[in-house]
Write a structure and sequence with these properties.
529 residues; alpha/beta; Rossmann fold; 3 domains; 13 helices
Length: 529
């Protein structure tokens, strides 16, 4: 008698050398581990920085089903807002490809589907542009809930949905004054990117309420952001940068799993507002769900550990880390091999925190202080709010870094901009609160969002494609032609010719290196002394 038990293949285990900037790539996602190389043999604490980066060229991406949900309420007739919306939409249409589909929904007193999802080829682009130019009409009140529900309905009723990504871009220039509460609308797994348009000059409604509503809608969605666009000339750039992410999707349903090793205890995992599970006695591993990741977009996670006392000097793994995501057609889960983060326990050494860890920890703390300042300002405690921002500025000055760090400089610029706004309670209520809410969600999700002045908001979370689209849109508004999606890909491939194969190549190199190290370990252990 013979048995044919099905056995799951045990994956290779990859080792990150203690203190090295080791990176590991699986397909379209790269993982990097950064931590101090040494820790004392006694009980101690250690911070480990885990970085996940999306990799992927435009031509390899999945097709996008995009629904734009556009406010055409009465206030949109002010200051040429409707014309600026039309120009922004024209840029979006021109950047889509034949693998993409677009639906346009408008809302005022009621929601209307101007067109269902259609493939965006050269013929349909002309139709879309004519539709935007001639069929966007002012329509009374502001029923945001109806518009959002209509956009979700378009996506829910798709006949062809396998292997496609989705997104809703929703813009409004006023608070909802008709219909249901849009913050209560269930959006499921659809990312909703909201845009507060013209908030600086919106005298018809309450900017505070509008910002709260649009921020909540985005926050209720998986991966959405809230962009604050008080200068109506900035809508095109804000749309363009959002689209620059959506058209460079690298991985979907990305999950990171962190498991403590050798009696190490995970005390805290800093991963913004992304969902975490585990880290209990019954399930010590921590799983973080990130959703989608764009090309060159990064998620940084700080894992704080309690290390147990060891009896002798030894190098031991403190974490086992792996990640997984869905393949292009959403039919298979791609899993990385387990990766071990190692630390050398030696004498009474003091761990030297890596600069990258310090910078990310400083960003997290600064974002928390910005939120604390906003809460004080909401309670009319403007002196306390300003003092909190000054405290954050002083904190950043004390961060120990070599030379100039662009992330620290971005944070300093952001704080200075907020401090200026807080000088006037009227300015805070009119434009400042929306800007800070946008910044808060952007920091929580480590994803770009326009924050008031678009020049200042181009920073640490913007990907190269987002920055390129912003410049293209600014040129388009001045009358220059828009490069096609194919031309974008060609330019990126010239800049990075091995990009399309780098993931697979790096992964095979890593496996080969680990195999050589294993062979060397066998030889060393067999060599007599």
């Amino acid at each position: 008698m013979s048995f044919h038990d099905e056995e799951e293949q045990i994956p290779e285990v990859l080792n990150a050398a203690a203190g090295n900037d080791d990176s590991f790539t699986l397909g379209k996602a790269k993982l990097k581990i950064i931590n101090s190389a040494m820790a004392p043999v006694d009980e101690s604490k250690l911070s480990v920085l885990v970085e996940l980066t999306g990799l992927g060229m435009n031509k390899e991406r999945v097709g996008l089903d995009l629904v734009t949900v556009l406010d055409v309420s009465g206030s949109m007739q002010n200051n040429d807002r409707l014309e600026k919306l039309k120009k922004a939409m024209e840029f979006v249409i021109k950047k889509l490809s034949p693998i993409d589909r677009l639906s346009i929904v408008t809302f005022g007193t009621e929601a209307h589907k101007l067109c269902g999802l259609r493939v965006v080829n050269e013929k349909s682009k002309a139709h879309y542009i004519q539709l935007v130019k001639h069929d966007l009409h002012i329509d009374g009140w502001t029923n945001i809930a109806a518009g959002l529900q209509m956009g979700l309905k378009v996506l829910a009723e798709r006949k062809y949905k396998d292997g496609r990504s989705v997104g809703i871009m929703l813009m409004s220039d006023g608070e909802p004054n008709l219909g249901a509460d849009p913050t209560k609308v269930e959006v499921g797994n659809v990312p909703v990117y909201t845009f507060g348009f013209g908030t600086a000059t919106n005298t018809l409604g309450d900017p505070k309420k509008m910002a709260d509503v649009l921020n909540s809608i985005a926050k209720n969605s998986k991966g959405g952001t809230f962009s604050d666009v008080p200068n109506t000339d900035g809508l095109g750039a804000a749309f363009a940068q959002c689209l620059g992410g959506l058209l460079t999707l690298s991985v979907q349903d990305l999950k990171l799993v962190i498991s403590p090793q050798n009696k190490t205890k995970v005390t805290t995992v800093f991963a913004g507002d992304y969902k975490q599970s585990g880290n209990t006695d019954a399930e010590p591993a921590v799983t973080i769900s990130f959703g989608n990741l764009y090309d060159k977009e990064m998620r940084k996670i700080i894992v704080e550990l309690d290390l147990p006392k060891v009896d002798k000097e030894v190098t031991l793994p403190v974490l086992k880390i792996s990640y997984k995501y869905m393949n292009k057609t959403n039919t298979k889960v791609l899993k990385s091999p387990p990766i071990l983060a190692n630390v050398k326990r030696i004498g009474r050494s003091t761990p030297v925190e890596r600069e990258e860890v310090s910078v990310e920890a400083s960003r997290i703390k600064t974002a928390e202080m910005i939120k604390e300042s906003r809460i004080m300002a909401d309670k009319e405690n403007f002196d306390g709010a300003k003092n909190k921002i000054v405290e954050a500025q002083n904190f950043l000055e004390d961060v120990e870094i070599d030379g100039i760090n662009k992330f620290i400089e971005f944070l300093k610029e952001e704080l200075q901009h907020i401090l200026i706004i807080l000088q006037s309670p009227a300015d805070y209520k009119k434009i400042g609160r929306a800007l800070i809410l946008s910044a808060e969600l952007s920091h929580e999700r480590q994803r770009f969002a326009a924050r008031g002045d678009t020049e200042k908001s181009t920073g640490m979370f913007a990907t190269p494609r987002m920055e390129a689209y912003k410049k293209q849109c600014e040129s388009f508004v001045k009358g220059e032609p828009v490069p096609t999606a194919a031309e974008d890909v060609k330019e990126e491939m010239l800049a990075d010719p091995i990009g399309p194969i780098s993931g697979a190549l790096n992964f095979q190199i890593q496996i080969a290196i680990q195999a050589l190290m294993s062979i060397q370990n066998i030889i060393d252990s067999a060599t007599p002394y």
